[in-house]
Amino acid sequence: MLDIKNLRVKLEDEDKIILDGLTLKVPRGEVHAIMGPNGSGKSTLGYALAGRGGYEVTGGSVTWNGDDLLAMEVSERAAAGVFLAFQYPMEIPGVATLTFLRTAMNSLKKARGAKELTTPEFLKVVTAKAKDLGIDKDMLKRPVNVGFSGGEKKRMEILQMTLLEPTLCVLDETDSGLDIDALRVVADGVNKLRGKDRAILVITHYQRLLDYIVPDKVHVLSAGKIQRTGGPELAHELEKSGYAEFTGKAA
Amino acid sequence: MTIAIIKTKAEQQLAAAFERVAASLPGASWVPAMRKAAMGAFVGAGLPHRRIEAWKYTDLRAQLKEAYAPATGKGATLDEKALAAALGPNLAKLPCNRLVFVDGVFVADSSGPTPDLGTDFHFLSIADTLGDPDFDWMTHAFEQTGETKNDPLLALNAAFVTDGVTIRIVEGATLAHPVHLIFLSSSAAPAASNTRNLIRIEKGAHATILESHIAVSGLARQNNSVTALHVCAGAKVQHLKLVAEGAEATHLGTWTADIEADATYNAFQMTESVALARHQLFVTFKGEGAAFNFNAAVLGRGKSHIDTTMVIDHAVPKCTSRELLKCVLDGEARGVFQGRVIVRPGAQKSDGKQMAKALLLSSNAEFDSKPELEIYADDVVCGHGSTVAEIDEDEVFYLCARGIPKRDARALLIEAFAAEAIDAIAHDGIRQALQARLNAWLAAGV
Ligand SMILES: Nc1ncnc2c1ncn2[C@@H]1O[C@H](COP(=O)(O)OP(=O)(O)O)[C@@H](O)[C@H]1O
Ligand SMILES: [Mg+2]
């Protein structure tokens, strides 16, 4: 289970407090959605889980299956099963996507005590999964995310997610920048990952994605806290009424 | 009025060393007088210092505290194990025409194999030919004219040169294997060596020539190495240099190249954290339609100081020059790039571009870049650029978030940065060998 208790996060360089006592539990086997207005701290939550620098945790705790995530280095969190699909994936000039994928997969295998992949094994699995996601072979030869369209970057995030076999998936606005066909492909990819040992946290601004990835629970994040929790119907309600109720509270 | 010039310790040591060894240096006939004149020119000007524009960032007078005694190289033998260790496994196994120099002297017994000798190329040791009446053309090779007129490194090298090689790549030949010139420093005592190579790529010939300047680990050395290239019409040469003589070494290296019509000169240099390196290139276009491409990877850590200074002389129309320097600097390392591009009157349609990029891994590292364009023709395209950056923490985070440990993530990003220069090497075996050396360098300390 992902267990977040009273999490407080501020910007390291500024006095700005972004998460202000956030509490959330996501049991294994479930898919939860986090919805909230722009600037409410959704991405910050993802970064705090993944361990991005610049975001200072000033209070609270985060455990995954009982392990203290906050005490781990970024790569250790990944080894523990954490995967964040970025809202804005970074471009890495000079590093070929295949090299990157192979280094990441083998680093994780090593950290998890599994056998590293041989080149043919690696190519086989990458080629198959890329095909499922409609990712062109040539894209894999290009530098990581460089010159990729918004949609291509998002597919690449999902490809990484399927290859790295995480147990805690956090998808940050994976729907933005996708047309309806791409959305289906990506949602299919995510749905295939649903399973009893895996927890999935879908961060989104719109309800659209949740028609394809139907969540067990929906949480509304605003003013640094979870303001309300409900079932999938809450997403539809928010689609109609908007977030005014919650932002109003903060104002 | 006479001006009293105060000689530095190193200058005094150099003058004294010349008195001591001149008589035992190779070469009869015109050679002793040439040496004496060169030494005279050097002593007159002294070691170059920062008030001389070309030495603005590398004050040799201040940095060369002491001049080591000339290596004798006499009776030098080769320790194959030490050589393989210094080259690294890939370079040691590179199929090539192997010529080995130990402490500045050609070691015939340890050289070879030379599979392409006699058919595609010929070579002779400089020590064997210097001053021989049959090789009088070599007098020209020691004349300093034009942009090299007052060059102190060439003068010192001419005064002290012990050996080196003349190479002729036969007209129209395509050399099947690279010529690998290995300069190994091995004497335990601090020593200086001076070598000179004269290479002629005849018309339409294709060749790859690699110089490896290496040392049995950690020796205090001062090596002054000169290679003069003549690339004849329509020839194509890839000329590479690895400088890895250790953290205690000073490497003073000069390449001169005359490039004739429609010839291509592809140059590459990789320098691994020596204490002090000064790389000079003097490139002159002699015929239209010629091209010069230069790529360099500079890897500095500790107190390493690595200077790359070049003069590209577009003396004739329609030639192209490209330079890309990638500099990785850690610790207190300092990198320097000075690129002077001259476009002579009438050299229309000249096309010259330079780019120098530094990646600073530490706040104490420093990079200085100084382009100079001297353009006396109007129909030309010339440009230059320079960037200094640090490792992008967002990129590191992204890689780490995918499970790559921070150290490996940084190494991957640095490798990607330096690879842009290394990727330009056309010869697969050499490119892979130098990539492996880059990875080893990174593994040793990032
Ligand atoms: N690195 C940063 N520098 C400055 N402000 C930031 C930074 N990260 C987040 N913020 C601010 O914190 C708030 C929450 O941002 P974010 O977590 O990206 O929200 P969301 O993903 O919900 O849109 C916003 O006001 C945003 O401007
Ligand atoms: Mg966001």
User: Which shape of chain A, going by the Cα principal axes?
Assistant: globular
Q: Assign the CATH architecture of chain A.
A: 3-Layer(aba) Sandwich
| Strand percent estimate of chain A | 25-35%
| Main sheet properties of chain A | 6 strands, mixed
Mean pLDDT of chain B: 95
Q: What integer is the average pLDDT of chain A? A: 94
The parts of chain B where pLDDT drops under 50 for at least 5 residues are none
Strand content of chain B: 35-45%
Q: Overview of this structure, please?
A:
The complex is a heterodimer of chains A (251) and B (446). With 251 residues, chain A is of the alpha/beta class. Chain A is built from 9 helices and 12 strands. Helices cover 37% and strands 28% of the residues of chain A. In chain A, the strands form 3 sheets. In chain A, strands 6-9-10-3-11-12 form a 6-stranded mixed beta sheet, with helices on both faces. The longest helix of chain A has 15 residues, at 97-111. The mean pLDDT of chain A is 94. By secondary structure, chain B is α/β, with parallel strands linked by helices. Chain B folds into 2 domains: 9-287, no CATH class; 392-446, no CATH class. Chain B has helices spanning 9-21, 31-45, 60-63, 80-87, 89-92, 126-129, 138-141, 152-160, 393-401, 406-422, 428-443; strands at 97-102, 105-106, 121-125, 163-169, 179-185, 191-201, 206-215, 221-231, 236-244, 249-259, 264-272, 276-285, 291-300, 305-314, 320-329, 334-343, 351-360, 366-375, 381-390. Chain B has a 10-stranded mixed beta sheet with strand order 2-1-5-7-9-11-13-15-17-19, with helices on one face. The relative contact order of chain B is 0.10. Classes of the chains: A alpha/beta (251), B alpha/beta (446). Chains A and B meet through helix 2, strand 7 and helix 3 of A and helix 9 and helix 10 of B. Residues 42-43, 87, 172-173 of chain A line the site of magnesium ion.
